[in-house]
């Protein structure tokens, strides 16, 4: 029996890849800690270091999030959300710390009519056409 698998929708990325440059001495220290079993690999060390710094500055981040009125975490905007904002004459000011995503069925025209500005600290997932239509509104 042959089964055909069809992907109904692409799986959203759970993380974003970044690239960093480190000096040889810093890299050597990381490799030593990995070799000694403190961390399973370089990535484990870097993720742990980042989480520790975020926790260290947690109160400042919480105050900033509150002051700037940003959505924290994942925020998905559907076609219906944007149509409602457009129809109400109340364009959205998207401010997200985390991941902001705009549904794949949103047209560039609808995005321009419904979104006044986009400020994302993290990642913005939208079709290339929607990103291009909002290029002058993305900070």
Secondary-structure topology with pairs:
Elements lengths: L23 H12 L6 H15 L1 H11 L2 E7 L1 H9 L4 E11 L5 H7 E11 L2 H6 L6
Parallel strand pairs: 1-2, 2-3
Helix pairs in contact: 4-5
Instruction: Name the poorly predicted regions.
Output: none
Query: Reading side by side through the largest sheet, how are the strands ordered?
Result: 1-2-3
Order of helices and strands: HHHEHEHEH
Calculate the mean pLDDT score and round it.
90
**Portion in beta strands:** 15-25%
Distance between the termini: 52 Å
Which value, in Å, is the CA radius of gyration? 20 Å
The percent of residues in helical segments reads: 40-55%
Please state the overall shape, judged from the principal axes of the Cα atoms. Answer: elongated
Count of helices?
Answer: 6
- Any idea how many domains? 2
Question: Could you describe the largest sheet, including whether it forms a barrel?
Answer: 3 strands, parallel
| Count of β-strands | 3
Query: Based on helices, strands and strand pairing, what is the structural class?
Result: alpha/beta
Organism: Rhodospirillum centenum (strain ATCC 51521 / SW)
Protein name: CopG family transcriptional regulator
GO biological process, one term: regulation of DNA-templated transcription
InterPro entries: Arc_rbn_hlx_hlx, RHH_8, Ribbon_hlx_hlx
């Amino acid at each position: 029996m042959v089964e055909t698998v069809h992907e109904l929708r692409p799986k959203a990325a759970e993380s974003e890849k970044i690239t960093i440059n480190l000096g040889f001495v810093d890299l050597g220290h990381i490799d030593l800690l990995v070799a000694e079993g403190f961390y399973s690999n370089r990535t484990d060390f870097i993720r742990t270091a980042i989480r520790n710094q975020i926790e260290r500055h947690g109160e400042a981040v919480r105050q900033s999030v509150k002051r700037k009125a940003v959505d924290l975490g994942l925020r998905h905007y559907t076609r219906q959300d944007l149509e409602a904002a457009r129809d109400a004459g109340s364009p959205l000011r998207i401010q997200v710390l985390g991941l902001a995503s705009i549904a794949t069925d949103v047209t560039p025209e609808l995005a321009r009519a419904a979104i006044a500005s986009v400020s994302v600290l993290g990642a913005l997932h939208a079709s290339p056409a929607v990103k291009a239509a909002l290029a002058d509104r993305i900070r």
